[in-house]
Amino acid sequence: MQTSPEVSAHVPNANTPVLTIDNLSVEFPAYRSTVKALNGVSLHVNPGEIVGVIGESGSGKSVTAMLSLRLLPERSYHVSGGSLHILGRDMLAAKEKDLLKVRGRDVAMIFQEPMTALNPTRRIGRQMLDVIIHHQHLSKADARAKAIGLLRDMHIADPEQVLENYPFELSGGMRQRVMIALAFSCDPQLLIADEPTTALDVTVQRQVLLLLREKARERGTAILLITHDMALVSQFCDRVYVMYTGAVVEQGATGEVMVDPRHPYTRGLLSGLPEQVQPGEDLMTIPGQVPNLAALPAGCTFRDRCQYAMPVCSKRPPLQAIDAEGLRKSACWLTVQEQSS
Ligand SMILES: Nc1ncnc2c1ncn2[C@@H]1O[C@H](COP(=O)(O)OP(=O)(O)OP(=O)(O)O)[C@@H](O)[C@H]1O
Ligand SMILES: [Mg+2]
């Protein structure tokens, strides 16, 4: 029997990635210049996996996340190459009505500051009920019961009270728990979390992320966790992609990347981890600055900051597989040399 693409796009399949980005390039045209924000990004997230994306500010993490749900202002950007699929659906070609089905149902997103995602003038209960009723067509009473259950699931002790609160009446950690409850309310297959805990203090950050992971594991939800914090990646992610100037420069199982980083940029990020830094030493140890995305140098974009730079680095290094399965990769001429020797 043949199924239409519309139908097959929503059949969960253990072997099909929930998110597949292939060689994606995105530009922001500006006055007399063009910001090349993504330059051939490829990544995927399998069902139930927790995948980290890490990189310094401006490396293209949020553009990748926002474009996955087509949340960038439509006329502000230009896709100059590549593709992006969610559950088999071509997101770059999808019409607005299909995007609305994907957002909040197949995929939910949580942002750094829940205050911007929650409406400050409406009680938490009204906002949760709206979302639950919209996506699941439940009665008001059933939706309220579901909201209470979801909040309790997030270890919120007094869910009835929280439903009556306005967002500003809750602590930052509590607001983020509400956001996670909302994100899970429609049983998404993928949750995209862009710096979800950066605004919280370290203890609350850890509690919220542990909760996020526990709930994702229980429900089989995949997570794409965007962060600039290597320590978070090492604690929470199964696999990691390291991004620099809009491209993946290293990828692999988190443990392997942490123990044996191959790209000098990844080594730099790792040397900023607290346990590797002497007391009083600055955390950010990569010297130099990220190049201007409107005037990227040809070749390896990290070479001006790299202590191992060689003449061949004036050519762009391929993302070279290190293992047989091609899960572990690094885009550095040193890796190419190691692999061929
Ligand atoms: N709407 C836009 N218009 C023009 N340029 C943009 C737009 N959105 C992002 N950019 C540019 O794209 C590049 C990548 O930005 P992005 O927000 O993805 O970085 P990031 O890795 O998320 O950084 P951070 O860690 O600071 O959040 C930046 O140079 C940014 O200025
Ligand atoms: Mg960002």
pLDDT averaged residue by residue? 89
Rg estimate, integer Å: 21 Å
By CATH reckoning, the class of the largest domain would read Alpha Beta
How many discrete domains? 2
Looking at CATH, the homologous superfamily of the largest domain is P-loop containing nucleotide triphosphate hydrolases
Assembly annotation = single chain
Q: Which ligands accompany this protein?
A: adenosine-5'-triphosphate, magnesium ion
- Main sheet? 8 strands, mixed
- What order do the helices and strands follow? HEEEHEEHEHHHHHEHEHEEHHEEH
Q: Which stretches of 5+ consecutive residues score pLDDT under 50?
A: 1-11, 279-283
Which architecture of the largest domain per CATH?
3-Layer(aba) Sandwich
What's the short story on this structure?
The protein is α/β, with parallel strands linked by helices. 34% of the residues lie in helices and 21% in strands. Helix 9 links the parallel strand 7 and strand 8.
